[in-house]
Amino acid sequence: MNAAELAEHPRLDPQPDLNPDPTLDPTLDPTLDPESSPRAADPLVSIVIPAFNEELTIEAAFDRLHGVLLELRVDYELIFVNDGSRDQTLPLLLRLAHDHPEVRVIDFSRNFGHQIAVTAGIDHARGDVVILIDADLQDPPELIGAFLAKWREGYDVVYAVRQSREGETWFKTWSARLFYRLLRRMTDIDIPLDTGDFRLMSRQVAHTLSSSREHHRFIRGMVSWTGFRQTGIPYVRAERCAGESKYPLRKMLQFSVDGITSFSFKPLQLATKFGVIVAICGFMGIVAVIVEKLFLHTTAVGWASLMVVILFLGGIQLLMLGILGEYTGRIYDEVRDRPMYIVRESYNFQSEAKPRI
Fold first, then answer.
1. Per 3-state DSSP, what percentage of the chain is helix, strand, and coil (rounded to 5)?
2. What contacts 241, CB < 8 A, 6 or more positions away?
């Protein structure tokens, strides 16, 4: 679909206000006991698919999801969140929404990031269960049937555990394993190892996440924080079916910082401990410089005292300021209380039509 065709394309059931207050929905009772709530034999399944520059994968992702869900014979909606894509992702999504009433599209005004796109999808999902999956097909849609089976057994969260990661460099595999283990040691939340955002959540868990409006979001950690009954299913993560990863090293490092600072104050505590260690090392350095000054006579006049003061105080101050800055920046983002995301347009959200099964 080119630009001219897009301009003539009719808007599909636009819904101007896509930032609802989930507490206004009387059907979402946070006091509901998940142990006693019945599991529907034929639940409405909401699939949330964030997409950023995924023109090469969108149609393949739809075909696989559509085929799996038809085979499972469940009512479903596919919620694609266009996270400010600059390629043909949006026109392709509009075409799918025009041809398939179960496809719903949220179009952001700009790129807000993967975790915010996932949040928007959760906010607007209507299903009894909400499933998160990326458009790159590294996570197999065929696992949805196993997710639903565990949900019917009474679990509120079913997450996929990566047994191996095909098509990824040794550095990315090693760094991912290191991150999950470091995060687990630094937080009091039991975040499962080697898990991504590919998971199923019950209606109650999704409602709980929607009611939490923190801006620096780490979805897998927030899901673990909610509690409820959770279990994992092992799988092998495949290569991307097309396109490039949207998480280069820079974004992975920022994502790691968000994950750690969202659920742990230990970096602040480590700053104190590290400061003590550096102070001890600095004291030992002072002793060494004094010995060199008094007995070896190999130092320039004034050099010893100047270097000790600069290295000792400068190193500690910069380290502490960096850690404090990370937490202060997050406080600043929260107190501004800006919208987490801005929806430019939405499609098919007023349609009550169910997919053909």
1. 50, 15, 35
2. 56, 57, 60, 61, 136, 137
pLDDT tens by residue, 230-282: 998 888 876 655 555 545 556 566 655 665 666 555 666 666 666 667 667 76
- Contacting residues for 228 by C-beta, under 8 A, at least 6 apart: 34, 156, 157, 202, 204, 205
Contacts of 72 (CB under 8 A, 6+ apart): 144, 145, 148
Cα–Cα separations (whole angstroms), residue 30 to 17, 18, 130, 245, 328 = 23, 21, 16, 37, 32
Task: Check if CATH label 3.90.550.10 holds for domain 3-247+340-347.
Answer: yes
DSSP-based three-state secondary structure for 162 = strand
pTM of the model as a whole: 0.67
Domain ranges of the chain: 3-247+340-347, 266-336
Helices (H) and strands (E) in the chain, counts: 11, 8
Could you tell me if 176 and 255 are in contact, meaning their C-beta atoms sit under 8 angstroms apart? no
Report whether 194 contacts 177 (CB < 8 A).
yes
Ramachandran angles phi, psi of 329, nearest 5°: -60, -40
DSSP state for residue 142 in the 8-state scheme: G
Structure tokens at 80: 């694609």
